[in-house]
Every structure is written in C-alpha cells, then in structure tokens.
Amino acid sequence: MAKKKSRKPEEDAVPSGSVTLSKQDERTLSQIQDMAEDVTKSAARRRDPALDIPARTLSNVHFNQNKKILEMGSKTTSRELFNIGQAKSFMQTMLVASGTKQLIEMGKTTSIRGLYYMLKHDIKPTKEPTFKDQGECDPIIEDCEVLLDSLREELHLFADKRGDMVGNIQIVDNGDEIDCSRMGSGGYAIPSIVEPNVIQFKNCQAKFVLHVEKNTVWQRFNEDKFWKKYNCILTHGSGQPPRGVRRLLNRLHNELGLPVYCLLDNDPWGYYIYSVLKQGSINLAYESKRMAIPKARFIGLRSHDFERCNLSNSVKISLNDTDRKRAKQIAEYPWFAKKKEWQREIDQMLKNGFKLEVEALISRSISYMTEEYVPRLLEEGNFLD
Amino acid sequence: MAKKKSRKPEEDAVPSGSVTLSKQDERTLSQIQDMAEDVTKSAARRRDPALDIPARTLSNVHFNQNKKILEMGSKTTSRELFNIGQAKSFMQTMLVASGTKQLIEMGKTTSIRGLYYMLKHDIKPTKEPTFKDQGECDPIIEDCEVLLDSLREELHLFADKRGDMVGNIQIVDNGDEIDCSRMGSGGYAIPSIVEPNVIQFKNCQAKFVLHVEKNTVWQRFNEDKFWKKYNCILTHGSGQPPRGVRRLLNRLHNELGLPVYCLLDNDPWGYYIYSVLKQGSINLAYESKRMAIPKARFIGLRSHDFERCNLSNSVKISLNDTDRKRAKQIAEYPWFAKKKEWQREIDQMLKNGFKLEVEALISRSISYMTEEYVPRLLEEGNFLD
Fold it and tell me: Which chain A residues have a beta carbon less than 8 Å from that of B174?
C-alpha cells in the first residue's frame, strides 16, 4: 500500500505516533521521497547529484488561452551539488524538502517563519548558517512547491490568514461543524489551509459568492444580512486576498458550481486584485490551476458609476502618476488586452481622472451598496468578464 | 421614559422604522442631544456657541497609580463658532455628532471611512468641502468620543477587525449562538464592535485567556488544541491588537473574572503591546477605562529565555538603534519605571544585544511553545506583572 511505502523508517524520520495521513499527504510524501531517491541514485551511480528546478521567471510564464489562466512553461534550470555557485542552494532545497517531510509525518503545520526557525542552524564544525535570513529561505520554499508540484499548503506550510466568511453554507473544519449562517457579526475566520482534508463542504443552499475587497465593506453587507436576502456566501480578503481565501473561493466555485462575483474598488489596485483572483499571479503562476477562477465576474465599481449612481464630486479621488502608469500596464495584460469592455473600462477611468472606492456609495445612503447597487447589477446580470 | 425622550422627532431625524434601541444607544443618543441643546440654548441666550473639548495632548494624560491605567486629565479647550480659527472645526464636530446620531437611530454601524463619505459634501453655494480628506475627519471623531464620553463603538463606528478566538466559551453574537470550542482551524473572527448589546457571554468553562501576538503562533496553539488541554480561551490580535480584541479581553477579564496572560515577542514592540493591553495607550487615553486590563500578565518571551530554554545562536536577531532607543523610552514609562522586574527585563535585553521572536521556540521543536514553554510558566505562576 502507498501508505506503508511512504512511511518506512528512515534516518531523519520523526516518530509520527498515531498520525493518520490523508491521501493527499501520502501523495506529497511520495513526491518528496522520489526526489530524494533520484539524488541518492545519482550518487550511487557516481553521477553528480542535481535537481531540475522549473524556472520561476517572467519569460517562463504564459497565459493559457484555453484555460484562461496564467501557467508556467517547461523551462528548468539545473541545480547541482558539485558546483560552487549552486551547492548552497542545492543543500537548502534538500533541507526544506526534509523539513516539510517531517511536518507531514508529524501531522503538524507551521508558517514559513516557523519552518525557517525549524531548519536554521550552524553547519558544524563551521559557523556557516543553513540560511542567513528568511529572505534566503522563502525562494527555496517556492522552488520546492514547483519541484514537488505541491501547493505550499500541501507541504503543511501556512500563510498569514485574514478574510472572513458568512452565508448559507455549512462546512466541516477539522471535524467541527460550522454553520456560516449562524456566525453573528464576527463571521468564520477563513484559515490559511483549506484543503479538502481540513475543510469539507457539508450543505450549501447559497447560489453564488459575493467577494468584497475590504472587511469594512463586508461588515456593511453582513450587518444588512445581504447574504440571507440574496441567498449567497459573503467573503472578503482584507485587500489582496491571501492564499487561503483564494483557494476557498476556487473550491466553492469548482466543487459546488457557485459563480463568484467580485466587488472591488474602481482603481488599478481593484483591477489587479480581480486579475489575480481570475487568472492567477505572475509571481506564483504555478499555483493558478488550483487558485485561479477564470469564470469570476467583476460586479464593480465601474468607471461609469460616478454618473450612473449620481455621485457627488466630493467622493472623487484624483489619480496620481503611479495610478495612471499601473492602469496602462494592466490594460496590456494579455487577458485584459483582448477584451473591449475592459479596455473601455480602464480608458474611462483614465479619462475621468479619478478613482472611486466602494465606500463612496455610502454618500448616497449607508445601505445603497447592499440595497440598490449590487442587487440591480445582479438582476441585470451586468458584470465585466 | 428615557427612550421616548431621546427619539422625539427632529429636523434631521432619519425614519428609524422598527429599530429597537438598546439602553446603551439611548444613553449615547441623549449625550448627543444634550450637547446639541447646550449649543442651541447658548444661541437662544445670544451667547456665542462653544464646545469644551477635553484636551487630547500628552500633557493632559497621566498614569493613575490607584487604577493602574492611563487617564486623561481635566484640561479642556474651547471650540467656538464665532472664531475664524475654530469655526470650521466647530461645525465639523456638530456634523460628526449628527452623523453618529443618524447611525444610532438607523440601528446601523459603519467604518470611520464610511462616516467620512456619509458626511462629506460641498457647502452650498460655496465649493468648500465639509472635510478636505479623511485626515481632517478622524481627529474630530476622537473629539466626539471624549466630548460625549462614548467609545467609538458606542457611536456605531467600527474599525478594521483582525484577531480570532477559540476556546471553552459559548457566546451569543447578534442573536447567533457561537460555540468557540467547535470552530475548527479557522476560529471565530472577533468583530470590531463587541459591546454587550452585540456580544453576550453565555457559558464559559475556561479558566483563563492566553493572548498571543501573531496569528501564526495562534494557529500553532489551536492546532495543538492547547485551549482544550488547559481549559482556556485563545486569542490573537495580528500584532498590535485592534480595539475589538482589546475590548473583548477587557470584558472577559472584568465580567467573567478570567486572568489574561500575554505571549509576546521579546522585543520593544512586544513590550509596547503589553503596555497598551495593560494600561492603555497615550494617544487614546480616554479609552483606557473600558479597554485596559491592569491585571494582565506577561508570560514571555523573557530576556533570559535564550539561556533558560537553551536556544541556539541562530535564532538571535540583533537589536538595531531604533530598538535600543525604543527600549529605553519604554523603561521610563511610569508603569515600568517603578518595577524592578521590568527594569531587569529590559536591561537584560539591551545587554543581550538581541531580540527573540516567539517562533524562535520552534527551533527547539515545533510544539515546544505549546507543550513545554507556556505550560511550565503557567504551573510555576512565573509571570511579569
């Protein structure tokens, strides 16, 4: 059985006691083991141990027109032990892989900061540290993710968590049943690791997900019980959503078939957040397949909302040079470049000369966003793709 | 009845429909009304309308040796309508008070950003805006808090929320029963407004609160089910805890009699967080009485932990000039200055020449902090006051 195979005793194995490994854990462990075995086999054959690391460079990222997500290409770079410029990073890669193996076998998770502390030590008898600082460890973690074709979360590493959820869904989180329709004003705090072995969807009555940018806007929607009236799930990501929120939205969309509508500011940052939710990010393109939601829709704010919603001059925030530069860059992203609607949208913002926050709608009335703005667009099916 | 009194129809009253006001809301409304009536009475008597605003200056803040909290003194400054330098801020103060009155009457809450948008407009027929920017509105909100002797939350204003809770307690949040011992890996997201009209404590089996600095450390404690083993409540505040977390800790301490133990980094920032939790902050001294927890205890990390816990050199983070300067300032705070233990603590850190993060304990083993460090100190009752 795979389970047995992946848990045979080894030198660095940590006694895992009664830890039960999930199928996912078994798969990840065997990836780590295969990598390690390749290295030892090379050594046994008296060949120089080396790793082929997929290149995480801009030139190795492309937009897949079929899947509509950012993907990594097939370029790799070799990382060799017997190469004075690569020996350190080779050993660091093996060390990180071995650290994540320990975590999986212990059935524990930690932050990238925690892993750094776990693995940092001076290599005796020298005073050479395994990692100078966190900045030297982080890219090696990303290398391991691509090398092992495993999300960071599958390597038992978590990120900061921020972002909350309420709505008509019941989930199971680590064995606890959580009814997100009974979460008061606070909500359920979305964890960093939301893989199926941690979070299962139990019942879902909701018909869609409304994802808003900021927690203050989320509080308005929750207080007005928007999710109850419109039978949906309400999430936020405190700005650029962290990995846990993106992965959870992806799962809600793919496993439960829920459309995801995004309510973001009318500014380049809002466009960028939408782009990452929808297509993935350039830096972490290898995650797109399990994070991105190509069918996500942008519900607003739109550049014509100043007129359409009859807003007053007092809510305008002038664009600065950075905004203008950033807007032009985003307009050239391949997934925006071919869409006339998005070109018009960005162009209109530049012509307006100002940006708008979602909160600007409060100038109409405190619940204008929950009672008029979003309901009207939902009814009209009026979204940007 | 007070209720009737505070809801009599007025020119700017917003139809409040079926909103039921809490006792707290009634009290706040009558404070706002009294303030407004003072102004109209002055005008009726042909005297210049003026407000006496408690001075939010360093010189008007002192440490109350009995209560062990920071307090505001009794200095006030007059803000007059018929004074060319004060007319604008006088009118802004009345505008903010009237905005919060509307919020209370509507039974709605908003962020300080939301209130700014609610109130911002050009004063016809001029093009003079009521507020130039958010920076002009925020201090007026703080003025209203002290003027009305009301926490921001009582004025129906919320802040960003961050911070989560799990543990052996059942609460009611806006009518929903939430069992914090069944919250999985995510936890209950602590809302910004945790006043008794929103959050009620239902059952509490827990014997104390462990408050940790960072959410990544909180995740370690939650994953190890520390709160279950030691029958406690586990909270974090994502660094400097936001108002909602501070107020909730205060309520858990005062209403349920739970001791609050703080696990923070061994650095000036950790000391400062402890100081704010315990005595309040200098900037917002008027909140101390409902936010500060004078009997909170500092469980660590301590400056002698490097030796005591047998940590390796690799976890040291060198102090920089800012750290040293900040540490000396904190040592001179009146509530640290008279405590020999704290003087030794800060002095030892300066002598060490390095700081330590809580995560440094992971270098011993991943669960050293949950299985050895904190349990031992709890058993020994070994805290800093």
Answer: 184-185
